[in-house]
Every structure is written in C-alpha cells, then in structure tokens.
Amino acid sequence: MNANSEIVKKLFDACSKKDFETVRSLTHPGYSLKDPLMELHGADELIEMLKSCPGGSVENLTLITEGDKVVSVFEGLTEGQPKMRMCSVITLADGKVKSEEMFYD
Question: Does residue 55 register a pLDDT over 80?
Fold first, then answer.
C-alpha cells in the first residue's frame, strides 16, 4: 500500500472510531466533501457530521491509487440501516485529504 492509500485508510479508521483528533490531523485546511445528499467544508463540519451519525463504520475497503488520487470502494454501515455499497474519489495535497466526492444510490 502506498503513502496516499495509507493516509486514506487511517482517515477511514479514525472516522469509524470517532477519533476526532486524528480526523483533524489527516484533513487538509481546504477539505471539502461532496456527497449526493450533502456538502461539507472543513474538518469542523466533517467532525460534526460524524458526531451525529450513530455507529458508522466501513467494511471490505478497497483502495486504488494513482498519483494524488485514491478511489475507495467499500460497504458503509450505519447502526439500524442496511449495508450500502459506496465509492469515493479522494484527492490528497501536502500529505492530507483535501477533497472527497462520494457516490452511492
């Protein structure tokens, strides 16, 4: 696994564990997330969203890396909800996650 994939995996793990200090350390100051249902701007908004999600985690994570981009394919688990197959395209800058665009239906 290369360095960018490791950073993304660490961020996914930190999000699942609600380790907000690590989440903040791995997100770029210009972080943004675009999701079919929402948009987030900055680590603070990401952390607030994570706080409001009951028991979310990721299973069967596959990471595909090319340069500063990492594509993640995974099953998202949220307490009380069925598993959801998801994909996200993540861009890194300066060793941190700068942007993420998620896809699911």
Answer: no
Query: Concatenated DSSP letters for 29-58?
Result: EEEEEEETTEEEESHHHHHHHHHHSSS-EE
Q: Give the predicted TM-score (pTM) of the model.
A: 0.91
Would you state the structure tokens that stand for residue 7, as one six-digit string?
């950073």
By C-alpha distance, which of 20, 21, 16, 4 is closest to 91?
4
**CA nearest to 104, candidates 82, 88, 80, 81:** 88
